[in-house]
């Protein structure tokens, strides 16, 4: 009993002195300085070394509200540059937290023009410009991208003018702050977006009917490959263009859970939500179907993203993934913001890391 009071007393003294110490301005300044140094340090260059293809999930969710996840965004790093497939809302915040350097922007590529895939386009352009991007931003997409870029440009025109006036042309040059739309027209079911000999980016049609156009992208870099489905049902073109890829990032919607949400919306008299929950069930892919796509395409690793809805806990994740193991017993991951894969060239290895840990 004496020992208990001794330990308890010591702990109490330590806690009280710690709390008092935190009230000291010099101690506060030291702690804040440490945080600033950590947050403003540049991202380790190894992320951009040209000996591997790397890919990070910068947004794993869809339109439904969820904590700690941005809407659709996949960052592919190749040849010293990074490419953003879809700028879902809040994804720019993730890139900022991970200290992705703006002068390494390759391009943005949009899969289609639902807001959960492009909500942050204006922010991404503004933030990378403000952080020192050294050229206008190329924005690739299917037919419609010109209109989207024009709209964001108009919405941000006043803000752009404020920043140039405030900081000066030498720091925020309006020419560099521009977005350049690059409309790609499919020839048949695909088109080459970029090809510099090392990196080849292919756009392919998917099926997100009644939304047209909607596309996915395949990145091939020095023998390694990553495919991003965008929004689609289970479709032959995704299988065709994912053939033997190292990693397939495929969207996933749990019809069980969305059906329950539809019923619950009806029960609570929210007919608007009930209608939307009903309508969205037929233009996405279930996790089981995504596993079938991965198997039929012979991909090594399947990562589910654009999670509808993103499971907030392990039990919800089990329901979301129900039946997947029967189709594909390994090589399936439920994506999260920060999940990163490293694919070294001249190798078949796949390594994983979490960018939030850097
Ligand atoms: Zn969509
Ligand atoms: Zn979507």
Description:
- By secondary structure, the protein is of the alpha/beta class.
- The protein has a single domain, classed as Metallo-beta-lactamase, Chain A, CATH 3.60.15.
- The chain is 36% helix and 24% strand.
- It is built from 13 helices and 15 strands.
- Strands 6-5-4-3-2-1-14-15 form an eight-stranded mixed β-sheet. A seven-stranded mixed β-sheet has the order 7-8-9-10-11-12-13.
- α9 runs antiparallel to α10.
- The radius of gyration is 23 Å and the shape is globular.
- The two termini are 45 Å apart.
- The model has no long low-confidence stretch (mean pLDDT 94).
- One zinc ion is lined by residues 112, 114, 208, 211, 231.
Q: Could you name the CATH topology?
A: Metallo-beta-lactamase, Chain A
The rough form would be described as globular
Class by helix and strand content? alpha/beta
Question: What is the fourth-level CATH superfamily?
Answer: Ribonuclease Z/Hydroxyacylglutathione hydrolase-like
What small molecules are bound in this structure?
zinc ion
Element-by-element helix/strand order: HHEEEHEHHEHHEEEEEHEHHHEHHEEE
- End-to-end separation in angstroms reads 45 Å
Give average pLDDT, whole number.
94
Count of helical segments?
13
Query: What is the rounded Rg?
Result: 23 Å
Proportion of helical residues: 25-40%
Largest sheet: 8 strands, mixed
Oligomer: single chain
Sheet with most strands: strand arrangement: 6-5-4-3-2-1-14-15
- The CATH level-2 architecture is identified as 4-Layer Sandwich
Highest-level CATH class = Alpha Beta
The structural domain count equals: 1
């Amino acid at each position: 009993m004496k020992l208990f009071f001794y330990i308890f007393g010591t702990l109490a003294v330590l806690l009280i002195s710690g709390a008092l110490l935190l009230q000291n301005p010099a101690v506060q300044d030291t702690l804040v300085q440490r945080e600033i140094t950590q947050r403003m340090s540049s991202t380790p260059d190894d992320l951009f070394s040209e000996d591997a293809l790397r890919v990070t999930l910068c947004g794993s969710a869809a339109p439904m509200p969820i904590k700690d996840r941005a809407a659709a965004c996949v960052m592919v790093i190749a040849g010293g540059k990074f490419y953003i497939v879809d700028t879902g809302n809040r994804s720019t915040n993730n890139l900022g937290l991970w200290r992705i350097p703006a002068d390494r922007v390759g391009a943005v590529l949009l899969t289609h023009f639902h807001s959960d895939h492009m909500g942050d386009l204006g922010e991404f352009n503004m933030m990378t410009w403000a952080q020192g991007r050294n050229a206008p931003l190329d924005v690739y997409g299917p037919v419609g991208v010109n209109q989207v870029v024009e709209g964001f440009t108009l919405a941000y025109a006043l803000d752009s003018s404020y920043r140039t006036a405030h900081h000066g042309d030498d720091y925020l040059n309006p020419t560099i702050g521009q977005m350049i739309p690059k409309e790609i027209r499919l020839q048949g079911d695909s088109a080459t977006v970029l090809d510099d000999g090392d990196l080849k980016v292919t756009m392919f049609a998917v099926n997100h009917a009644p939304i047209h156009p909607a596309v996915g992208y395949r990145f091939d870099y020095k023998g390694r490959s990553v495919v991003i489905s965008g929004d689609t049902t289970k479709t032959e073109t995704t299988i065709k263009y994912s053939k033997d890829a190292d990693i397939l990032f495929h969207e996933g919607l749990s019809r069980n859970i969305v059906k329950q949400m539809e019923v619950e919306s009806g029960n609570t008299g929210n007919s608007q939500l009930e209608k939307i929950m009903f309508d969205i069930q037929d233009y996405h892919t279930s996790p089981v179907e995504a596993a079938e796509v991965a198997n039929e395409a012979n991909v090594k690793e399947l990562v589910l993203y654009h999670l509808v809805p993103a499971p907030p806990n392990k039990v919800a994740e089990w329901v979301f993934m129900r039946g997947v193991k029967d189709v594909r017993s390994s090589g399936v991951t439920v994506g999260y913001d920060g999940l990163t894969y490293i694919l070294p060239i001249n190798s078949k290895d796949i390594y994983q890391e979490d960018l939030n840990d850097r």
